[in-house]
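sorry to bug you again but im stuck and you know this stuff better than me. what follows is a protein written twice so to speak, once as letters and once as structure tokens for the fold. mainly i need to know what kind of three dimensional shape the backbone takes. anything you notice is useful, everything is just below:
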Amino acid sequence: MKRIIKILAFGGLVCICGLLCLPMTAVSSEVPTIEPPVIVTTCGQSPGAVMVKMSLMQAQIVPVENNNTITASELKGKGYKTLIVTTGTSGKGMGAAGTNINKEIARCKEVITAAKEEGMVVITAHVEGMARRTDSADQQSIDEIMPLGDVMLVVAESDSDGYFTKLAQEYDKPLIVAKDALEIGKKLKEYVKVEK
């Protein structure tokens, strides 16, 4: 009899622990339906936006365009349904584009606001791994842009320390984790609206 009580008590404890841990592993909220046409831009002029575009094309999430200098006025009235903004910066890329991290953040915030006014789904992303989490400019782009999306998208390496999992929980955003950049399109395809 004592043994049965011990087993039941242990089983109850396991169930309680499982329930307490569930919120840490579950997506905090629903991922919105993703629809093309998709426009992809970067906050920091790194190649992440091009990587996302190529992965979406490979997964046949089309049409998809990439414009690393798009402005809010250029976005309006174009019929896009989804905006993806990648974070992580390239000093060389920003220099070549004649911009800096503060200008990039301001541009992307305006683009995100315009996208939401147009009824678009906004995905904020970090897709280049830890290589784009090395300096203050990278961190600025992450801190200022990632919380603004309807959903966050990262590759596994970017979240190897759990940073984006915690950030998504803090802002109550769904988090999509792709194994690597090549899997981004395949992972997003799970949430794409299928035309009937």
